[in-house]
C-alpha cells in the first residue's frame, strides 16, 4: 500500500549550466536563466510503500514522516537560494528534475531506516502547470 | 536517471454528445443534458506526462519550450474556442466524449513525437484530460 504526504517550501534558483555558453543557457532555460534568480512555492509529494501494522492500522506514524521531511528537506530547502545554499546545486542545475532526484537521495535511507516502509516516489510541483516524479533507479 | 515530467495546458471548447448510431431518444437517455442539440462548453485541462532521462549538463528531461510549441500547434490552436463536433475532423465521426478526446490528443501528439524529440528521446507516457474537476480520463503508453 502507498501513502503520500504533501509539504511545501519556497526557494529561489537560477537555471544556468556552467557547461554551456550564455546564449545556450538563455535559449534552453529562457527567463529561468536570469542570473539574479527567481523563486517558486514548491509543493513536494512524498509517497512511501509499506504494509499497515496489524495493531495501529498505520504503515508509518505520519508524525514521524513529517519529522523526517522537516529535518531532511524543509530545513535545508525552505527560503534558500538553491544554487548557493543547497548542495549539489553548487555543481548541477537546480531544475525541477534535479530537485526531485536530490530529495529522493536525501530521504531514501531515512525512510528505509524506519523499518516500516520504503520510499516509492517523489513528486515536485514547481508551478501548477509543471511537475516531475522520480521513483528511483528504474 | 529516469523521471516523469508533467506539463498542464488549458483550452475552452464546446461539444455535443450525440451518436448517429443511436436514436434521438436513446441519445437523450444515454447522454442526458450533454445531448442538448445546441451544444455546451467546458474549460478543459490537458496534462501531458513524459518519461525521460535527465541530461547531465542541462538537468532537463525534455525541452519544455519544444513541448509547449508541440502542444500549442497540435492541440491548443486547433481546439481552442472551437466547436469540437463541427471543427475537429475526428469528431465528425466520433462522439467527443472525454475518452475520445483523450485518445485524439494522444494520437495527435504521438503522430509527430519522434520527429520532434527523436526515437531515443523522451517518451510520451500519458495524456490526462479534465473535462471538469470531477471528470478525468487518461490514456497511457502502458496498459
Question: How would you briefly describe this protein structure?
Answer:
The complex is a heterodimer of chains A (138) and B (143). Helices cover 33% and strands 31% of the residues of chain A.
Describe the protein's architecture and organization.
The complex is a heterodimer of chains A (138) and B (143). Chain A is built from four helices and five strands. Chain A is an alpha+beta fold. Chain A is elongated, with a radius of gyration of 16 Å. The model of chain A has no long low-confidence stretch (mean pLDDT 95). With 143 residues, chain B is α+β, with helices and mostly antiparallel strands. Helices cover 34% and strands 31% of the residues of chain B. Chain B is built from four helices and four strands, in the order βαβαααββ. Chain B has helices spanning 24-31, 64-79, 84-87, 98-117; strands at 2-15, 40-53, 123-132, 135-140. In chain B, a hairpin with a 2-residue loop joins β3 and β4. In chain B, α2 packs across α4 (98-117). The interface between A and B is medium-sized, with 25 and 18 residues. β5 of chain A pairs antiparallel with β1 (2-15) of chain B.
Rg result of chain B: 17 Å
Helix share bin of chain A: 25-40%
- The helix/strand order of chain A is EHEHEHHEE
Largest sheet of chain A: 5 strands, mixed
Q: Could you state the oligomeric state of the chains shown?
A: heterodimer
Biggest sheet architecture of chain B: 4 strands, antiparallel
| Overall geometric form of chain B | elongated
Strand content bin of chain A: 25-35%
**What's the number of extended β-strand segments of chain A?**
5
* Mean model confidence by pLDDT of chain A: 95
| Largest sheet: spatial strand order of chain A | 3-1-2-4-5
- End-to-end span of chain B in angstroms? 23 Å
Strand content bin of chain B? 25-35%
Question: Count of DSSP E strands of chain B?
Answer: 4
Biggest interface? A-B, 25 and 18 residues
N- and C-termini, Cα separation of chain A: 20 Å
Tertiary shape of chain A: elongated
Per DSSP, the total helix count of chain B is 4
Helix content, binned percent of chain B = 25-40%
Runs of chain A with pLDDT <50, length 5+? none
How would you classify the helix and strand content of chain B by structural class? alpha+beta
Amino acid at each position: 500500500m502507498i501513502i503520500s504526504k504533501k509539504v511545501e517550501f519556497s526557494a529561489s534558483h537560477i537555471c544556468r549550466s556552467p557547461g554551456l555558453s550564455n546564449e545556450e543557457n538563455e535559449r534552453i532555460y529562457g527567463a529561468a536563466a536570469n542570473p539574479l534568480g527567481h523563486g517558486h512555492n514548491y509543493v513536494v509529494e512524498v509517497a512511501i510503500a509499506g504494509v499497515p501494522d496489524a495493531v495501529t492500522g498505520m504503515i508509518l506514524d505520519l508524525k514521524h514522516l513529517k519529522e523526517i521531511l522537516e529535518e531532511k528537506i524543509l530545513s535545508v530547502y525552505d527560503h534558500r537560494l538553491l544554487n548557493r545554499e543547497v548542495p549539489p546545486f553548487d555543481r548541477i542545475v537546480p531544475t525541477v528534475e534535479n530537485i526531485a532526484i536530490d530529495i529522493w537521495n536525501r530521504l531514501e535511507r531515512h525512510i528505509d531506516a524506519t523499518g516500516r516502509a520504503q520510499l516509492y516516489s517523489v513528486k515536485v510541483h514547481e508551478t501548477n502547470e509543471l511537475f516531475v516524479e522520480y521513483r528511483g533507479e528504474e | 536517471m529516469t523521471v516523469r515530467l508533467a506539463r498542464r495546458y488549458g483550452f475552452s471548447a464546446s461539444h455535443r454528445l450525440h451518436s448517429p448510431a443511436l436514436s434521438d431518444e436513446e441519445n437523450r437517455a444515454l447522454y442526458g443534458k450533454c445531448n442538448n442539440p445546441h451544444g455546451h462548453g467546458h474549460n478543459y485541462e490537458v496534462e501531458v506526462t513524459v518519461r525521460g532521462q535527465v541530461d547531465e549538463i542541462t538537468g532537463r528531461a525534455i525541452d519544455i519550450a519544444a513541448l509547449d510549441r508541440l502542444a500549442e500547434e497540435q492541440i491548443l490552436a486547433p481546439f481552442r474556442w472551437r466547436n469540437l463536433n463541427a471543427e475537429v475532423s475526428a469528431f465528425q465521426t466520433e462522439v467527443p466524449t472525454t475518452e475520445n478526446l483523450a485518445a485524439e490528443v494522444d494520437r495527435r501528439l504521438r503522430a509527430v513525437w519522434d520527429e520532434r524529440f527523436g526515437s531515443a528521446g523522451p517518451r510520451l507516457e500519458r495524456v490526462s484530460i479534465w473535462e471538469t474537476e470531477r471528470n478525468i480520463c487518461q490514456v497511457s503508453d502502458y496498459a
